[in-house]
């Protein structure tokens, strides 16, 4: 069935009888944002192609508002409730003025590390929308599922009959027309699938995948009866508003929304698929497990959110806790966790990360590096999972230059290497990063076998740093938008640390000694900076702009991950200045992108401070965890490693989790 701007409807009838009466008010209600006002609320954020957000300036008018893909495209996603025969929009009905549907009143918006919650009043009832994207990195099954939850809960009512409806439209596929629709039902599970007709595998359009399927699913529970329909958006919604039912049987007040790609990644010419397919190879099996897993995933998320708040507040205060809560889903929302599509071999797990908002490279080393504090804190095995696609390629001798490669593919999801040797050149940056990351992984996990396997590759890059790490040629560092510079102190220090990292990895004292000599040269003999710590505290306070410290003297913009890495090295007073500035940028109400890690920090060059530049939704916000990383690796392992009973069964069968 082919149609234009499909609307998929799932409704759920559920009556709740509680011991209090809902009251109404005629005054407009100013939405409360807790714990702070973010630029955008994550709704369904799981991987580069399932990334739906609600700009904060739309929350006051949430009943009318469309959600957005991370790159800014509009996504049709509506939620409607019918109370005693009157329909109210909770979200996403832009044409309310031409329908019989009334807008609900938005009262409160909240975000945690894993949830975004909106409280509304509709008629005589109060309702909560809970958008829940699990973050469970040690549970590979749960983390790899390309779905997110929406739970609609009646929190206050007095015996009213309540019916709940949700729909998505064809824009979730990356196209607004030429859309194919399928409807399936298995043992009570029902789901709609939307896809682009004749899409080319691995094809993108404006960063949206075209070759997969957008999915809306649900299932009955003990408190609901349901119905479903597909058709023109306005027709389906009006039918629900008028009669409160759709055509055909369906599901409940917890919905699953997702975007599934059987061929997830093209890795060196082989199709890699989601890790979850080792256990649940079909869509209906995966969706069924996802909905079955809701209770355990929710329980884990509550513990996770509470511990995140507790740890981050203790580390650097409430503002720091707010920053990490908003960063968490985004830090994992640029990653696919995969296995080979042909063998479904769970001994060959690879993680692929997209360089969002810039050129879309796959597994860019200088994206993994700034982001790695979040992996260090939650599960350091992800450092290896992200490096392994690069290491397998390098071990095959397909990259012949003497320094480390920049990435494993020019544009995601094509991780096909650079046999032409034309990856973006960052010789010192990437060679140093790779060695530092390798040592971080080994120190966090004790897995020296992995490092030994690739020691000859690491030595090649350590030798390059030894030969080229002092009088450094004109070249790029990680923030390539700033342009190249000769003799960057930052790169010289990174080279010295990279050499030292290899010395520790290999137990070859000569490398450690060379690194120590470089450090002596830079910090004592050459620059006279033996009091570097005090100098840094004083200097960075002196160059602080309205929203923090610009990256260097050539521009007025700051990098949030770099600032938090720096903050972790400072005394509390200077550290708190950096946190205050990033929190002020995050909450200033001047912008509505998913958390941007690059923004105007100073008015020194005539630009308005507090405005983001280019970067949206990048996983580099994992660098915001740098202060928490001081607590040591796997600080959250107790929660992130919780596994469901199904996963325990899978492990007993020899499947790595």
From TrEMBL:
Protein name as it appears in the record: Glutaminase
Keyword Lipid biosynthesis: no
Residues making up the signal peptide according to the UniProt record: 1-19
Residues of the Glutaminase A N-terminal domain: 114-247
Entries under InterPro entries matching the protein: DUF4964, Glutaminase_GtaA, GtaA_central, GtaA_N
Residues in Glutaminase A central domain copies: 317-528
Keyword Signal: yes
Domain DUF4964, residue spans: 38-102
Top-level lineage group: Eukaryota
Keyword line: Signal
Chain segments annotated as coiled-coil in the UniProt record: none
Name of one Pfam family that matches: DUF5127
């Amino acid at each position: 069935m082919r149609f234009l701007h499909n609307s998929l409807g799932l409704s759920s009838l559920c009556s709740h009888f509680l011991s209090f009466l809902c009251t109404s008010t005629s005054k407009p209600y100013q939405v409360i944002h807790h714990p702070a006002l973010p630029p955008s609320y994550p709704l369904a954020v799981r991987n580069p192609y399932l990334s739906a957000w609600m700009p904060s300036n739309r929350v006051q008018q949430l009943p009318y508002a469309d959600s957005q893909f991370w790159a800014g495209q509009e996504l049709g996603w509506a939620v409607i409730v019918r109370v005693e025969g009157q329909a109210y929009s909770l979200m996403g009905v832009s044409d309310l003025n031409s329908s019989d549907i009334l807008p609900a009143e938005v009262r409160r918006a909240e975000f945690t590390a894993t949830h975004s919650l909106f409280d509304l009043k509709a008629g005589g009832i109060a309702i909560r929308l809970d958008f829940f994207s699990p973050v469970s990195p040690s549970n590979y099954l749960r983390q790899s599922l390309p779905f997110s939850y929406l739970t609609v809960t009646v929190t206050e009512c007095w015996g009213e009959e309540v019916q709940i409806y949700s729909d998505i439209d064809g824009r979730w596929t990356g196209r607004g027309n030429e859309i194919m629709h399928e409807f399936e039902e298995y043992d009570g599970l029902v789901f709609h699938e939307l896809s682009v007709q004749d899409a080319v595998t691995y094809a993108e359009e404006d960063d949206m995948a075209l070759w997969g399927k957008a999915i809306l699913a649900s299932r009955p529970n003990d408190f609901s009866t349901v119905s479903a329909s597909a058709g023109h958006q306005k027709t389906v919604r009006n039918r629900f508003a008028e009669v409160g039912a759709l055509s055909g049987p369906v599901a409940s007040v917890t919905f699953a929304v997702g975007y599934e790609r059987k061929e997830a990644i093209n890795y060196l010419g082989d199709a890699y698929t989601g890790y979850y397919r080792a256990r649940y190879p079909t869509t209906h099996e995966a969706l069924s497990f996802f909905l079955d897993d809701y209770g355990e995933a929710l329980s884990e998320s509550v513990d996770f959110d509470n511990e995140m708040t507790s740890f981050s507040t203790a580390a650097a205060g409430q503002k720091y806790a707010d920053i990490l809560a908003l960063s968490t889903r985004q830090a994992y929302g640029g990653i696919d966790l995969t296995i080979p599509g042909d063998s479904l071999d769970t001994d060959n797990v690879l993680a692929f990360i997209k360089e969002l908002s810039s050129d879309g490279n796959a597994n860019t080393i200088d994206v993994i590096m700034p982001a790695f504090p979040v992996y260090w804190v939650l599960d350091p095995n992800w450092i290896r999972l992200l490096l392994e696609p690069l290491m397998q390629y390098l071990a095959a001798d397909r990259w012949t230059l003497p320094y480390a490669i920049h990435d494993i593919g020019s544009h995601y999801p094509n991780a096909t290497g650079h046999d032409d040797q034309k990856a973006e050149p960052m010789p010192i940056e990437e060679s140093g990063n790779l060695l530092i990351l390798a040592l971080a992984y080994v120190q966090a996990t004790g897995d020296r076998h992995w490092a030994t396997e690739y020691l000859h590759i690491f030595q090649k890059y350590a030798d390059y740093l030894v030969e080229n790490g002092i009088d450094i040629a004109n070249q790029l560092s990680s923030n390539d938008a700033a342009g190249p510079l000769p003799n960057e102190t930052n790169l010289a220090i990174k080279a010295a640390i990279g050499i030292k990292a290899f010395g520790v990895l290999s137990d070859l004292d000569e490398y450690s000694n060379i690194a120590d000599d470089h450090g002596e040269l830079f910090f004592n003999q050459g620059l006279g900076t033996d009091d570097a710590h005090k100098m840094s505290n004083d200097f960075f306070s002196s160059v602080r702009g309205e929203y923090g410290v610009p990256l260097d003297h050539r521009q007025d913009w700051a990098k949030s991950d770099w600032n938090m890495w720096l903050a972790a090295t400072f005394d509390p007073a200077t550290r708190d200045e950096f946190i205050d500035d990033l929190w002020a940028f995050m909450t200033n109400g001047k912008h509505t992108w998913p958390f941007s890690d690059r923004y105007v920090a100073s008015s020194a060059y005539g630009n308005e401070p507090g405005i983001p530049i280019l970067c949206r939704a990048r996983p580099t916000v994992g660098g915001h965890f740098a202060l928490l990383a001081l607590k040591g690796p796997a600080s959250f392992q107790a929660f992130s490693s919780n596994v469901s009973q199904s996963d325990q069964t899978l492990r007993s069968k020899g499947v790595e989790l």
